[in-house]
């Protein structure tokens, strides 16, 4: 950033820096709930529905061995369980346990509150504009739904 640019940053820097900011908020929230950032992501993804291991790997961007370790640790902590896939007897589906669903709900709600605070100085119109533009980046690049839309009533 130069002195005469009015304090503005470009699109690339803004996107990258905002990613770091949101990841830091997410990691702090996860830590306070006794989770790793990846466990928090796994719980949030599984809130929507159970998924097969290959689907989870693609959504979370993890190699098979990394995902297996993540699911193993989460299963040992009583947060997820493996079950058979009714469509393919060789496949495994991962779902939240009752304990995992309760923790996921709490973690999700708190993380949403924290991320929302990042824009607390914005007007409603500015928030709408930001959501529309980022939403377009996400849909244009076919980003999987790894975090459900927050319920405005929460």
Description:
This protein has 154 residues and is mainly alpha-helical. The chain contains 6 helices and 3 strands, in the order ααβααββαα. It has helices spanning 11-32, 37-48, 53-60, 64-76, 98-117, 124-140, and strands spanning 51-52, 80-85, 88-96. Helix 1 crosses helix 5 and helix 2 packs across helix 5 (98-117). The longest helix is centred in the first third of the chain and has 22 residues, at 11-32. It starts with 10 loop residues before the first helix and ends in a 14-residue tail after the last helix.
Give the SSE layout:
Blueprint: H1 11-32, H2 37-48, E1 51-52, H3 53-60, H4 64-76, E2 80-85, E3 88-96, H5 98-117, H6 124-140
Antiparallel strand pairs: 1-3, 2-3
Helix pairs in contact: 1-5, 2-5
